[in-house]
Design brief:
The complex is a heterodimer of chains A (405) and B (248).
Chain A lengths: L3 H10 L34 H9 L10 E6 L2 E7 L4 E5 H7 L17 H7 L6 E5 L9 E6 L6 E10 L4 E9 L7 E11 L4 E9 L4 E11 L4 E8 L5 E4 L2 E4 L5 E10 L3 E10 L5 E10 L2 E11 L5 E10 L4 E11 L5 E9 L3 H8 L5 H13 L8 H11 L8
Parallel strand pairs in A: 1-5, 4-6, 5-7, 6-8, 7-9, 8-10, 9-11, 10-12, 10-13, 11-14, 12-15, 13-15, 14-16, 15-17, 16-18, 17-19, 18-20
Antiparallel strand pairs in A: 1-2, 3-4
Helix pairs in contact in A: 1-4, 5-6
Chain B lengths: L6 E10 L2 E11 L4 E5 L6 H9 L4 E10 L2 E2 L5 H7 L1 E4 L11 H8 L5 H7 L16 H15 L3 E5 L7 H14 L12 E5 L13 E6 L2 E6 L1 H18 L6
Parallel strand pairs in B: 3-8, 3-9, 6-7, 7-8
Antiparallel strand pairs in B: 1-2, 1-4, 4-5, 9-10
Classes of the chains: A alpha/beta (405), B alpha/beta (248).
The complex binds adenosine-5'-triphosphate and magnesium ion.
Adenosine-5'-triphosphate binds next to strand 2 and helix 1 of chain B.
Chain lengths: 405, 248
């Protein structure tokens, strides 16, 4: 049995431990106390700002869903399930209600991994607890919005997601700041437990401000026959972001797919996934599309194959549209067994002149043609998502304001 | 007095990189006319159409291209397209993430995409990325679909029949006739076209008024399409060199 005191102790020792990747954030320059926000009874009662911001990251809280979770700064303001097969709670309440949750708490992300996890471990828990019960199959996604609404705040979130055996769970999370928030930090710890034959899609859309720093820390375990479609979309300016979720495919036949879509205009964006194929017949793919008109993007992908028969594919494609940008693609394959099938594909380039000419010959201006090509490039085909979510993602990646150079 | 031709190319010299491909090309296409352009591989046919379209790498060394009485020699491609020039590419690229039905809307928001796709028996491709994974013949129909949406006044067709099966050649021929208003009486026609073909079979399904032969980067011979085609079939392109029909 786990002792909560031990987590704090380990965290304390990692207080100043820098992360392996990404720029270093001065935690002391952010406020750790947030003003409390009132709970609301239903999503319609949320402040208009929050509803608008949520919509901007694809979280339409009024549309059909299996549940909703909204957190403003450090306060959970709504946590409701609208489908009996799933539980949606704020994590503090869930920890009180379920003793067994301790078996999941800080099990996939180490409290002493770095100063960011340490910081979360040392603050009161806030975040969501999502659980699809055994055999429960949701069609509509659980919609959640993590809203950083106060300037200079260090928003700390710790989420636990459990998909019990044979369940199906779809989650869309939008993380966002309103325009008036000049500066802020968001640290999000997420632990995913995907059990036997469960099917999960998790779509995360980030929309931050120009002075916001972001450090998500994610751990995922997958059991036999389970599947995961993990999608990350970042299209708006951000100061720095660094994340490198770890996913372990521990059960036979587990399948994971990571899709990343980034439109970079500024800042330092360091993202990727770290996948371990630990069981026979597992397969994983990681596909990232990056368009840069400015800023530094590091697109990582690491696959470690540990048993015969594992299959892994990495794809990092970048379109660099400006001299002010940089796309640094780092695909890594680590084969540790015979009979593996692991491959990667990486390309960084500019827009094809041939395609541009073709569209201009049809009467599109150079800008229009560029924008059409860029939007097409960002339109990744994501498997394993319900139609509605696919459309939601499409709406976001196909926005008119992504004009290219 | 000189009549204003829809397209009037005068003493055109065009280079690609260091290589001069077109040498003193003269070509006139009047309103309502459809011309055919023949010539062996590598003789400059595609180069001529690309230069008329205004593709950036085709450098006009001297001479001029007049369209609707305007000198378009230095005009950008999209301006030329908006002025009424359209082209079916010999080898069009694929565009990832752009659905054919969406491109139709972009080309012409007023176009009846459904009807056009049906006309080209191409409805199953509406939701596919433009030209991506299309077969050789399908790519040609995709080009026709786009031109039918665009409705250019001057349609340039670069081998619209290559790789196309017999049934679809008929379909493409008919589409070209529609684009060039062959359904109206000759004096009422305004739209014009030019087609490059190696086989001439497609000419059985569409009307052409005049044909030209290109050799070594110049138009060397012009005349009745059927006659010229028969000459080429009988004597090859060498026959064209020997023949002294005027290229005007
Ligand atoms: N981008 C290029 N760089 C160098 N040479 C080129 C380029 N494009 C065309 N050429 C050359 O210009 C000449 C004319 O080419 P063009 O494509 O116009 O021929 P064509 O008459 O259309 O031939 P085909 O019947 O084979 O289509 C050829 O010798 C070709 O190799
Ligand atoms: Mg050619």
């Amino acid at each position: 049995m786990h002792v909560p005191g031990e987590v704090k102790e380990r965290a304390e020792k990692a207080r100043d431990k820098k992360a392996l990747y990404g720029t270093d954030v001065d935690l002391k320059s952010y406020e750790s106390k947030a003003e409390a926000h009132q709970e609301v009874a239903k999503p319609e009662d949320l402040p208009a700002d929050v509803k608008k911001a949520a919509l901007d990251v694809g979280v339409s809280l009024d549309k059909e869903s299996s549940g909703a979770y909204v957190q403003m700064d450090q306060s959970p303001v709504i946590a409701e399930s609208t489908y009996e097969g799933v539980e949606v709670m704020d994590i503090a309440t869930a920890l009180e209600k379920y003793d067994w949750l301790q078996d999941y708490w800080w099990k996939l992300v180490a409290p002493d991994a770095d100063k960011y996890t340490a910081d979360v471990a040392q603050s009161p828990p806030a975040g969501y607890f999502l659980r699809a019960k055994a055999g429960a199959k949701t069609v509509f996604p659980i919609k959640s919005c993590l809203y950083l609404g106060s300037t200079n705040l260090n928003q700390r979130v710790h989420n636990v997601i459990i998909a019990e055996e044979g369940s199906e769970l779809h989650v869309i999370t939008g993380c966002t700041t309103p325009a008036h928030v000049q500066r802020g930090l968001h640290i999000g710890v997420s632990e995913f437990f995907i059990k036997k034959n469960a099917k999960v899609s998790f779509t995360m859309i980030h929309s931050w401000g120009q002075e916001v720093e972001v450090r998500p820390r994610t751990g995922i375990v997958m059991e036999e026959g389970s599947s995961l479609s993990n999608n990350y979309i970042l299209l708006r300016p951000v100061k720095t972001i660094q994340t490198f979720p770890t996913c372990s495919l521990n059960g036979k036949g587990a399948v994971a797919s990571f899709n990343t879509v980034i439109y970079s205009t500024m800042g330092n964006i360091d993202v990727g996934s770290n996948v371990f194929l630990n069981a026979p017949d597992t397969s994983a793919e990681s596909i990232s599309r990056v368009v840069s008109v400015g800023g530094d993007v590091i697109a990582r992908g690491r696959m470690t194959g540990k048993v015969p028969g594992a299959r892994a594919h990495l794809e990092c494609v970048g379109l660099l549209l400006s001299d002010n940008g940089r796309i640094y693609s780092i695909p890594e394959l680590d084969g540790q067994s015979r009979d593996l099938d692991m491959s990667h594909e990486a390309a960084v380039g500019r827009i094809s002149e041939e395609e541009l000419d073709y569209l201009m010959a049809r009467g599109l201006t150079s800008d229009e043609a560029t924008s059409v090509i860029v939007r097409g490039f960002l339109d990744v085909e994501i498997k394993g998502l319900p139609e509605e979510l696919k459309q939601e993602i499409k709406n976001i990646t196909q926005r008119e304001d992504l004009k290219g150079a | 007095m000189e009549v204003v031709r829809l397209l009037d190319i005068r003493n055109l010299y065009v280079s690609i990189g260091d290589k001069q491909v077109l040498k003193d090309v003269n070509l006139r296409v009047g309103s309502g006319e459809t011309h055919a352009l023949f010539g062996p591989n590598g003789t400059g046919k595609t180069t001529l159409l690309n230069a008329i379209m205004g593709l950036p790498r085709y450098e006009v060394d001297s001479g001029s291209i007049l369209f609707k009485g305007q000198d378009i020699t230095r005009m950008s491609m999209d301006q030329r397209a908006r002025l009424g020039i359209g082209m079916a590419f010999q080898r069009p690229p694929a565009i990832r993430g752009l659905k054919l039905k969406d491109l139709i809307k972009i080309i012409n928001p007023g176009a009846d995409g459904g009807r056009i796709l049906k006309q080209m028996d191409f409805e199953n491709f509406a939701n596919r990325d433009v030209n991506r994974g299309f077969s050789g013949g399908e790519v040609k129909r995709s080009e026709m679909v786009q031109l039918l949406a665009q409705q250019p006044d001057f349609t340039m067709l670069d081998e619209p029949d290559s790789g196309v099966d017999l049934e679809n050649i008929k379909l493409i021929g008919e589409a070209i006739d529609i684009l060039t208003q062959k359904d109206t009486r000759p004096s009422a026609r305004i739209k014009s076209g030019i087609i490059i073909t190696h086989f001439g079979h497609i000419l059985d399904y569409m009307k052409t008024d005049r044909a030209h032969v290109m050799l070594g980067g110049s138009v060397v011979c012009s005349g009745d399409p059927k006659e010229i085609l028969e000459q080429i079939k009988a004597n090859g392109y060498e026959g064209c060199v020997a023949c002294m029909c005027p290229a005007k």
